[in-house]
Design a protein that fits this description.
The protein is α+β, with helices and mostly antiparallel strands. The chain has three helices and four strands, in the order αββββαα. Helices cover 44% and strands 27% of the residues. The longest helix has 17 residues, at 3-19.
Length: 90
């Protein structure tokens, strides 16, 4: 992995965590999925967020329906990742 990207991504996530106002009962971060154009944050309670590769927060804590409508490519990454994880399980 590119160290410069990792540094910028971690800085963006840290900044986002410091400045966001958490919604009541919005859940916690479960996993980050890295795509070509952005990183997807999957929260508990089926909430989603995206950060561009240059560190810009594009969306935070979207419902599944909002996420699918606004970020169809990232939604496919999410679905594919979890399908692969469950089908590869012993």
């Amino acid at each position: 992995m590119n160290p410069e990207f990792t540094r910028r991504f971690c800085k963006a996530v840290d900044q986002h965590q410091k400045t966001r106002k958490p919604a009541k009962n919005s859940g916690r971060v479960i996993v980050y999925l890295k795509g070509r154009q952005h990183t997807l944050t999957v929260y508990s309670r089926q909430r989603f967020g995206t950060i561009s590769n240059n560190g810009i927060v594009l969306a935070d804590r979207l419902s599944l329906q909002e996420f699918q409508a606004r970020f169809s490519g990232a939604y496919q990454l999410y679905r594919w990742s979890y399908t692969e994880a469950w089908t590869d399980s012993p």
